[in-house]
Design brief:
The complex is a heterodimer of chains A (about 280) and B (about 270).
Chain A: E1 3-12, E2 20-30, E3 35-40, H1 46-53, E4 61-66, E5 69-70, H2 78-84, E6 85-88, H3 101-111, H4 116-129, H5 146-158, E7 164-168, H6 176-193, E8 196-201, H7 204-208, E9 213-218, E10 221-226, H8 228-232, H9 235-240, H10 247-257, H11 269-283
Parallel strand pairs in A: 3-8, 3-9, 6-7, 7-8
Antiparallel strand pairs in A: 1-2, 1-4, 4-5, 9-10
Helix pairs in contact in A: 3-4, 3-5, 4-5
Chain B: H1 16-19, H2 22-38, H3 42-59, H4 63-87, E1 92-96, E2 99-102, H5 103-129, H6 132-142, H7 153-183, H8 193-199, H9 201-224, H10 243-265
Antiparallel strand pairs in B: 1-2
């Protein structure tokens, strides 16, 4: 179960004067069960890239393989692919349309042609996975708060039981509390089910805590692709392209410049705390 | 998907036609359309074709791009041609079973096809080279005399420019929602008519909601900036005729005069 992108290029509006080379020669392997952060500035091509993963956009040239099969081959079943690679769009709450929350979540599995019982079981499980209370199930999705709507929309994709879950900016427009809740929920889901998760974001801070691999996109190309601590070592380059490393990186860099012998490759606040305490402890 | 609809969408490039005052282009388009209905002879259509070809050349919009946008109209064109071809009474040319093609039918069919396609290409040159905003500016300016009859010219123009502005936004939104629903296994293509209509619900409901939301936001933003229509408003970039606009008017007048002469005498 893996996705391979082989020399993928994509050009928007290729026959107009405004052609934009959105993706430039992307080569990636996304193995099973990884938790990946896809980071890039606005317009870096990250949204375009994730829409390639489930065949919504056909690359201008290059190939995409899912489990070894070319997804743009003539006889490939794209509907099945879309149930395997679940894509949650930016502001997914804008796609809600049903009269109540539960029916909206049923939409995905129903389209897969599952039985009614199976559909409802999956919808129920998905709503539980995103942590929504039973009280909301038969309310109109339009009466919910922003964060709740988003959970419903994510559940709508989860109900299809994808093997790879792609979330495009799942925290956009949420307050810090809502953001942490959603991200924690996703991390928990990842842990429980072992599915592959690709988290698209423009904020290093958001993903640093959770992911095991970071892919940095810049102007349509992959700039860095490594484990977080290695990626953050390039914090100067990241700044140049309008991104930033998490704040702890800067603190640790500053401390080490002041002569404190701390490791500078920590990625989370908890790690930083331990490291500083370690150095302070040994000094005494 | 929906991005393929290019009919009348502004095409950005730098050309003489793009730089013309929108009023010139608007009047030219109206004159061109009228001229198509004045002339009845082949010479007239030939002159219109030349006028059109020169405009296309000057506009620097690729002809291929223009034609691509016309695909949607081919169907209407085809119906017109077929009806005229088979249903016009007159001198019979060919007759198979009950179907007859008459000389008059052939003539009207060809004329109609030429007229319609010229009309569409002609007006699309205007929309391809003029931004919706400057187009409504031009309309507002040209309709100003109607104010005497208490026509709310500014408000009408404002509504038009807002409506036009929202077309690409809503198209983009449609595209996005469509993709999101396809990602959830929705199928917009297969099935019979009823099934297809039903499949539109997951697209239309979110689209309407978003349209209302956007309209609300816009109204709020306008109110917050103390917008009120019509009276005493000035423009940041008022329309002003330049030398090239006078030349364009001259060319247009000459073309129109020739068409009238041909229309009367040939």
């Amino acid at each position: 179960m893996s996705i391979i992108l082989d020399h993928v290029n994509y050009i928007y509006g290729s026959d107009t004067s405004l052609a934009v080379h959105a993706l430039k020669d992307i080569n990636l392997v996304i193995p099973d069960g990884q938790f990946i952060g896809l980071i890039g500035h606005t317009g870096s091509g990250k949204s375009t890239l994730v829409q390639h993963l489930n065949g919504l956009i056909k690359p201008s040239n290059g190939n995409i393989y899912f489990n070894g099969e070319d997804i743009h081959a003539q006889d490939y079943n794209k509907k099945k692919l879309r149930s395997k690679v679940g894509l949650v769009f930016q502001y997914p709450e804008h796609q809600l349309f049903e009269i109540d929350v539960f029916s909206d979540v049923c939409f995905g599995p129903k389209n897969l042609g599952l039985s009614r019982q199976e559909t409802e079981l999956r919808a129920y499980a998905a709503l539980k996975q995103v942590g929504l209370e039973d009280d909301y199930f038969y309310q109109s999705p339009f009466d919910l708060s922003g964060g709740q709507k988003r959970r419903v929309a994510i559940a709508g994709v989860l109900a299809m039981k994808p093997e790879i879950l792609v979330l495009d900016e799942p925290t956009a427009g949420l307050d810090p509390k809502g953001r942490d809740e959603i991200l924690d929920q996703i991390a928990k889901l990842k842990e429980e089910t072992g599915i592959t998760v690709i988290l698209v974001s423009h904020s290093m801070e958001d993903v640093a805590k959770y992911v095991e691999r970071i892919i940095v996109m810049n102007q349509g190309a992959v700039m860095l692709d490594d484990i977080p601590r290695e990626v953050f070592k390039h914090y100067k380059e990241l700044e140049e392209v309008g991104l930033a490393a998490p704040q702890v990186t800067y603190i640790m860099q500053a401390l080490s410049k002041k002569g404190m012998p701390v490791r500078t490759d920590v990625t989370t606040i908890a790690e930083a705390k331990d490291e500083i305490l370690r150095v302070l402890g040994s000094g005494r | 998907m929906l991005r393929d609809i290019t009919l009348g969408q502004y095409y950005q490039t730098d050309s003489v036609i793009h730089k013309l005052d929108p009023r010139v282009k608007l009047i030219a388009t109206i004159c061109f359309i009228i001229s198509l209905f004045i002339v009845k002879s082949w010479i007239g259509y030939a002159i219109a074709a030349v006028f059109l070809a020169v405009s296309i050349k000057l506009s620097k919009v690729p002809f291929k791009y223009m034609i691509k946008g016309m695909k949607a109209i081919v169907f209407i064109l085809l119906i017109t041609v077929v009806f005229n071809l088979f249903l016009t009474p007159g001198e019979v040319l060919v007759s198979v079973w009950k179907i007859r093609i008459t000389k008059e039918g052939l003539q009207t069919a060809v004329t109609m096809a030429v007229r319609l396609s010229f009309l569409i290409v002609g007006s699309s040159i205007m929309t391809l080279t003029t931004t919706p905003n400057s187009l409504t500016d031009a309309m507002e300016k040209l309709m100003k005399p109607l104010k005497v009859f208490k026509v709310p010219v500014h408000e009408v123009a404002m509504m038009m420019s807002i409506a036009l502005r929202f077309i690409p936004i809503l198209l983009e939104e449609t595209d996005k929602i469509m993709k999101a629903q396809i990602a959830r296994g929705a199928d917009f293509e297969s099935g019979n008519l009823i099934k297809k209509a039903k499949a539109m619900v997951p697209l239309l409901v979110p689209l309407f909601i978003s349209a209302f939301r956007r309209a609300n936001d816009l109204a709020m933003a306008m109110e917050a900036r103390c917008y009120r229509g019509g009276e005493h408003r000035t423009k940041m970039k008022p329309l002003k005729y330049a030398g090239r606009d006078r030349i364009a008017y001259g060319v247009l007048a000459a073309y129109f005069a020739v068409c009238i002469v041909i229309g009367i005498y040939l």
